[in-house]
Amino acid sequence: MLPVVSLVGRPNVGKSTLFNLLTCSFNAIVLDVFGTTRDRQYGIGIIGNFSYLLIDTGGIVIENDSKTDIFVNVLYQIEEAIKESNIVLFIIDLKFGLLEEDILISNYLRKFNKNVILIVNKIDLSINENFYLDIYSLGFGHPILISAKYNKNILKLANKFLSIISESKKYFNEQIYDFNKSIKIAVIGKPNVGKSTLINSILKKNRLVVFNKPGTTRDSVYIPFKKKKDYYIFVDTAGLRKKKNVLKQIEKFSVIRCIRAIKYCNVVLLLVDIVEGITEQDIKLMKLVVDIGKCLLLIFSKCDKSKINRTMYISKLKYNIPFFNIIIVHFISSYFNIGVNRLFFYINLSYDCANKKISSYFLNKLLENLKFKYETFWNKKKIQFKYIHCGGHNPIVFVIHGNNFDKIIDSHKKYLINWFIEKLKLVGTPIFVIFKLK
What crossing angle do the helices spanning 360-373 and 410-424 adopt, rounded to 10°? Predict the structure, then answer.
C-alpha cells in the first residue's frame, strides 16, 4: 500500500493549487471561490523513485452556523481522508494570518493522532510581524513556508514528509497503482441523476458527497478501485447543464473537466433518471462520446421508482438514437443496489470489444463476403475494395484500401460499419473506417 498524504485547511487557502503542483496535474479546480472543492480528490505524487497517494479535501468549516447537510457531508469526507492518511499537511493562508478557524481546525486534527506538518502558504505576500509567534502556539512545530502559486519551497516540503514516511521502510519499493493498465470509467449525466450515489454504492461507503440538490459535485473526482483481479479508475463528473445555464466560472470549468474526463477514460457511463426520461441533451452527450470514440453504456438510474415496460422503452429508443446499435443499455437502482454488480460485466465487455485483436486475414474474409453479397452494387458504382487491416484500438479503426472511394456516401459508410459490428459481435464501442486510395 502506498503512503497517504492529505491536504487540509480552511476553504481557499491553496490546497487544490498545491495538489495540482505535487501531482503535476490540473485535476482540481482552482478558483478564488469559497468551498470550490467538496469531494476528496486522489492523485499520485512522485519524488525521485518514491511514490505516494495525495488527497485534496474540501475546506474545513467548524462553525455553529455551518451545520447544513452539505457541509456535514463535506466534513465526513475530510474525516475519512484524515483517517486514511499517514501524514496530514495542514495549510494556513499567510494573507489572513492565523484565524480563529485555524485554531479550531488544529484542535480538531489532534484527535486523530496523525503526523501533522504545518504549512504556511502564499509567502509571496507581506508578512505580519506577530504571525510567527501565533503559528508556534498551535503546537505543530516549525512551519514550512511555501508559495504554491509560484512553486517556492515545494521540494523542501516534499522532502519533509518523505523523511517522515521513510522511517517506515515498508513503504519503499511499493508498486504504484497502475493507472495505465486500469480501465478508466467516466460517470456523466445531468445534475442529480445519481452519479455519486452509484459510485458510493460500488465502493460500499459514502466516498462522495451525495446531496439532493443539483450541482453537488463540482469537480471531476478520480477514484481508484479494485474488484477481484481487475483495476478500475472511476471519474465522477459534475452534472452537465445546457450552456445557457452555465453562468458561473466554476461551472464552466466543471464542464471543461467533464469533457476532459470523457477523453481521458476508456468507458463512459451516461446516467439518465428513468423518471425524467431521456432528453435531447442526453442524446447530444451520447453523440459527443461516440464521436470522441469511447465505449458507451446508457444507464437508467432510479429504476425502483418506475414500472415502465423496459423492452418497449428500448424499442422506442432505437428510432430516436441513430447510433443505438453500439450502445449497451442497463437499468439500475443504486439506492437498493439493483443491477450495480452486473454493471462490471458490461464495462469489461465493452472495454474488451474496443481492444479486440482482429487478424487481417479474418477482416479480409469479411470484406470478400461483403463484396460478393453486393457485387452488382459495388460494380455499378465502380467502387473497388482491395484489402483491409486494423489501424488502431480503443476505438477500433479499420483502414480499407481501394479505388473510387469518393463515390461512397454516408449511408454506404454507415452500412459498412454496421456490417463489421454485426459480424465481429462488437458491443458498447464505436468503430471508425478510413478509406485509402490504392
Answer: 130
